[in-house]
Every structure is written in structure tokens, then in C-alpha cells.
Amino acid sequence: MKGSTKFITGLLVIGGLVCVPWIVKNPYYLHIIIMSGIFVLLASSMNLITGCTGRLNLGHAAFYGIGAYGSTLVVMKLGFPVWFGMVMGGLITVFFGVLIGIPCLKLKGSYLAITTLAFGEITRLAMINFVPLTNGPLGIRGIPGPPTIVFGHTTLISFESKTSYYYLILVLCVLCLLIIRRVLNSQIGRTFMAIREDEVRAETVGIDTIQVKIMNFALGAFFAGIAGSFYAHYVRFISPDTFTLGETFTMLTMVVIGGLGTFYGPIIGGVIFTFLPELLRAIAEYRMILYGLMMSVAIIFMPDGIIGLFQSWITGRTKKGDKPT
Amino acid sequence: MIPTTELAQQAVNGLVMGGVYALIALGLTLIFGILDQANFAHGELYMIGAYATLYFSESLGGMYPLAVLFAMFSVALIALFYEWLLFRPLRGKGHLPAIISSLGASIFLWNLGLIIFGSAPRQMRTGLSEVTVNFWGVSLTLQRLLVLVVALALILCLYFIIMKTRMGRAMRATAQDPEVAALLGIDINRIAEATFIIGGALAAAAGALIGPIFLIYPAMGLMACLKAFVVVILGGLGNVMGAVIAGFALGVIESLGAGFIASAYKDFFAFLVLILVLWARPEGFLGKTAKKAG
Amino acid sequence: METILRAEGLTKYFGGLAAVENFDLFVKKGEILSLIGPNGAGKTTTFNLITGLESPTRGKITFKGEEIIELRPHEIVEKGIARTFQITRVFRKMTLLENVAVAQHIAIRPTISSTLFSLSERKREKSGLEKAEKMLRFVNLFPKREELATNLSLGEQKRLELAIALSMNPELLLLDEPVAGMNPKETEEVIDLIGVIRGEGITVFLIEHDMKMVMGVSERIVVMNYGKKIAEGPPEEVSRNPAVIEAYLGRRSPE
User: Fold this and answer.
1) Among A10, B62, B173, C246, which has the highest number of CB atoms less than 10 A from its own CB?
2) Domain ranges of chain B
3) How far does Cα A167 stand from its chain's mean position?
């Protein structure tokens, strides 16, 4: 697609998305759509670390949780406004992303997978046990939503209805995805791929792999943290049960099936696997069985995911990533 | 002052668990060393081994040893399927795909186990847990003693297979240099199958032995797999002796830690040890030294 | 001519085995120097030591007067040394263009904030891509620039390695068996390229087994065997050196 065609298509898509709340009136369906927005962010953030750079982070749900708890605590314990809290949620997660990323620098493959898994579980343990801070397994209730936006005496946007939250997550997604897209198409995006292909070789073409790997973790952590912050102020209740290994596996399924290392892959994966459980309500018990099966089958038969299939169908050959626009 | 008999008791209990960890870790480290692939579904072999022993012994009306053998045989077969379905198609494609494919299989299997076996934990009775042996102030149930004895016996068997048989030599050759091994006419597919069969049998034995001591439940493979990975990392990927030593060591550390520090956090000693060791030596405790650039 | 690279007493043990032992070497700025020797003589290890992939057990290496053994490989690239690999190590699932563009890293030095906010960075990226295209044209791979590197033949991969190395703007270019596995026509092309590179003022230090190529292209040759230097000098001298002849005839004959 040429640049101008892409731009117009993008505008049309966003235009369509803006109209959604007028079409979908059922608050439950709107909730699912909002959750899919959150998972698009989560899957895209995981893709940065696991897909693009090839470093399997099995503790990604921890970033999600740190963003949620971080924002909540900044707002409820320190009394800051919600908008500030949400930004802080992202930044706090970046801090932990770097903290966890540093010992992980020398690790790869299974070592990295197990260690990140360990960090994820330890974070969950911390959420359960630091009761004075996190209220333990009971979680934190009554988290305030974003304040009503007023202009003089007119209420512009009130965050009492799902519609406002929908627009908020839409804005967040568009902003974050634009940033991710820019990063993936940039020099840094290429260094991510180089590290995935051959880390030692990357070092010998002048890439400071330590610096890039930390930036990569920080970036992935940031977007997961933002997703977590939004989640906290949307659902208004968080508990350690939300940020489990199972969530990480779900995110991994989204990225793998969607397309590891691609831009659109996690978006598609995020949407599909948020809607799928609803469609599969009848066989909810079998959901994880299906996910596991799909993940294994996908990595063997369609390693570039749905996007990969799509691209090879179009171009007749397999490629990873988007061309620079 | 910590009473020495208390210490010894915990240590011996730790050795028992260590034997189990070593058995599971051995299969994992063999797969790493010989095939350079990570099997994240290894814990499920352990879990299926436990359930298989349960079902065989129930249908055989007791006869625990026979049930164990049947279980080992069945799980070895399942491990063969692992190799055919999950790993062979991905050979040579790097580390990440095999991790993901086996992760998917793990999710598939333990959730399938939830459906088939139900989430309620089961108890395996063998009568051996009733009898206790005492020596030097330490008491062990016969079952626990059996775990230790059988674990050591299997480890010796493995040693014999690897060191003295032709297959074992071929495995070692492949572990050292797969390309040269192929040039020498060694069929990597046969080696892979043998490795998985052995790994599966050992993991099944671990499950069969531990079943009567603790409860059996479908998710038991997850924590076991995690700990097995810790053991393998500590001992060095592919290092058989390292896996044995690290397995027993982890068992003892866990037991002492749980006994004297905090039993609620028992499982997390493994993580703690892992993070500390990897911080100091990213190649693992007994592993090979990594080059400067990684 | 000044010395651009100097190695003194370079030693590297792997376990009990000395891959390189007490190796002294100097490379003059602007020359074409070849390192030859039987297989296993320690040549690639020497390259690895120079480029920071291995740490020497003993000895030191100075580049333009600066000691470089403590430096990480990417820092050595920044100093001005680039290398190709004997067994090609291109980034397989990236396109040719991406392969070369990624090596512009030291010229662009991106960070997250500069990538997102800096306009000059976008300009640098654009010129980086242009430079990458230029390099691909130089090695005659421009038509395939959107192909994945894994689809290239061996000879093409070697040329890609060359393009990648050149795009790092090196002053010293280390080529590890640049024509291994190539037919005579391809070899000729590479020799021409090396001539042009040298004409740009880049010092070329290469490892090769193709004796015809080595004798034709080099101004000076260093011969290694069992990790030690056994001869050094202009091609005619070295080819008549008895120790060199023995090393080769004893193990394998020159091509």
C-alpha cells in the first residue's frame, strides 16, 4: 500500500472506531471492546520485548500489575490526581522494567524465560504479601476514575459511563501504537531485530546491546504499565489475581498467533483473544486447552502468525515487519 | 542452637525431594545438552507419570511396582510424541520456537488434565507410607526411602547407558558437536527419540514415586518444571552430573529453608537461589564460561 | 607509513590449548595485509581478539595508539574497526537493506527520545538508508535490497557482509576469508572491490586460503601456524620461506 493510501485507510479505521459507541449500545459488549483495547496495548508491549527482540518475558503480567498498583497507590495513598497517577503508573513500571531488565541482560533463551517467570511470580507474591501497601489478596476497591472534565459550568466528559472510557482507551491505543510504529520502523527497531537474529553479530556492527536491551525492556514495561493504570481506574478494583502467569500466557498467545515481531500482529491477536472467550463461553473450560494447542500449532506451521500468512499470501514470500513508510 | 537431629531430619527429607528433582531435571538437561532445545512441557510428563501410576495401580488392584513400570513406559511413549510433534519440526530454528511450542503443549496438557482428572487432588495409597524406618535419629517412611533408593538406582542406570552403551556414546557425540556426529553417521532423529524416551521415563518415575507422598493434581507439573529448570540452570545446561548435584542440593536447601525459615515460602527458595546464582554467574553455577560478548 | 594496529605478545588459551601464542603483529595504515596459515593456526581467533569477541589471556592490542582489549565489540566498531565473518553471519530474516542500515548505528546513535522527538534523527535515518543503498550498489546487490538475507547465495552473503562492514565507516577493515567458496569470476569481483576500498584510504587486513588471491592482492603477508608467527614479509619472500612451505605441505597444499 502506498503511503497516502495507508493514511486514508488509517483515518477511515479511526473514524469507524470513533463511531463504535453509537452502534454498540450494550454496556457489556462495550466493556469487552474496552478490554480488547487494553489487551492490544498489553500484546503490543509484550511484542516489543518477545517478538521484536526475541527475548521471552514470561513475567510480563507483572508490568501490567505494577502499572495498576502504581497508579492506584499514587492516587489513593499519595492523593495525586488520577491523570497524574496514570502517567506515574507508566513511569513506575519503567523503573521496575529497568530494574528487572538489568540482571536479565546476560540471559537469553530458557534462562531468560525462567528468570522473568520468577520475577513475575515474585511480583505477584509481593502484591499478596505487602498488605499495608497493597491490601493483600483482597485487593484494592473503590479506585477513583478520571475526574470529570469541565469547561466553566459545562460538563464535557464524565467518566461515569463506559463510552467515555472507550474513547479514553481509543486515544491511548492510537497514541501508543503510533509511538510503537515509529519505533519499529526506526533505526532502533532495526537494532531490536538484529539482536533477535544474532546478538553477538549485532554487537559487532556497533550496537550497544546492553543499552538497547534496557531501552527495549523499559519501552515494553511502559506500555504494559499504561495499560495497567487504565485498567485500575476503569474497573476501579484490582487484586493480585488479575496479574498472574495465566495472563502472561494469554498475552503470549495473542502475540504468537497474531504475528511475533510484527506491528499489526499483536493488535489482531489482542482483539481476537479478547473476543474469543466471549464467543467460546459455552466451552470456557476448554479455552486454555485451545490456546495451548493454537500456540504450538501456530509456532510450527505459521511462525509469523496471522500477519505472516497474510503477507505471504499478498507478496508470495514471507517477510517480518512492515516496510518503512 | 538448632538441634542436630532436627537438622538431619530436614536434610534427609530434602535429599528425598532432591532425588525427585534430579530425576526430572536429568531428562531436561539431556534434551538441552543433546538437542539444544528447551522442553517447557517436561513437568507434564511428571504429572502424567503420577496419574498413570495411580490409574494402573487401581486397575491392577495394587501392585505398585508394576504400575510404576507401566507408567514409565506410557509416559516414554508420550515423550516420543513430544519429539515428533513439538520439537522435530522446529529443529535448527533457534531457541525461541521450541520454547513456545512446548509452552503451548504444557498449557494444553495441564488444562486437559484438569478436564480429564478433575481439579480435586487425588491421593495414591501404596501402604509404604505406613511403615517408618529409623536410623541415627532420623525417621523416614518406607515410601520416602524407596524414592531415594530408586532415584539413585535410576541415576546409576542412566550413567551406565550414557557411558557404556553405543547409544550413550552417540548421544554424547551429538551433544559435543552435532555436525561432526552427523558426519559420523549418527542419526539425529534416533538420538532425539532416545533422549525423549529416557527423559520421559525418568520424569514419570519421579511422578510415580512422589505420588504417594504428596497429593496428585493436574497443575503439579508446573512448579516441578520450574524447579527442574532451576536445577538444570544451576547445574549447567547439558551437564548430567551437575543436574544430579544441583537437584539434591536444591532439595536440601528447600527443606532446610522451609523447616527453619518459613514453610509458606518453600517454593520460592528455588527462585531465590536461581536469581542469586544467575546474578553472580550468568552461565549457571557449574556451566561453561560464556564469552565476553555473550 | 604509520602503524594503525599493533598487537604485542598476544596470547589466548582455550583451556590448556594455546590458540594464539606470543603473537606480534603490526598493520601499516593504508596497506593490504594478509594473514595466512593452515586451518586451526589461530587466524580467526586473532580477528576475534582484535574485535573484542574474545579476551586475550596475555598481551595487548593498540589501535591508533589506543589500547583496545578492554573494549566491548561495539566500542571497537566506534573506534573504526569493522570485520566480516568467515562463516557468514548476516541477519537472516531482515532484508538486505535493513542488514546494512542497521550497521549505521554508530552514525545515528538512536535513543528512544531521539527516535520519537528529534527531527535531525529522522534526517540521519534517511541518509543512513541512502548510504545503505549506496553500499549495496557498490557490492552489486542493490536489485535484491528488499529480499531477506537468508535467500542469498553464499557468494552474495559474503558481498553483503562486505557492504555491512563498509557501512560502519571503518579505517581498518578485517576480512575473514572474503572469497572462500567463490568461483573465479566472483573472486575477481571481490579483488576489484578491495582495490577500490584501499583506494579510499581504508586499511585492509584479510585472512584467506586462496593463495592466488593472496599473492596477487597483498602488499605484505604474515604467516601463522599453531598460534605463532612463522614468517612475515612481501609475498615473493614468504612464498619461498621454507618454514612456510613446510607448514603447508605438511598439512595441506596451497590452492
Assistant:
1) B173
2) 4-222
3) 18
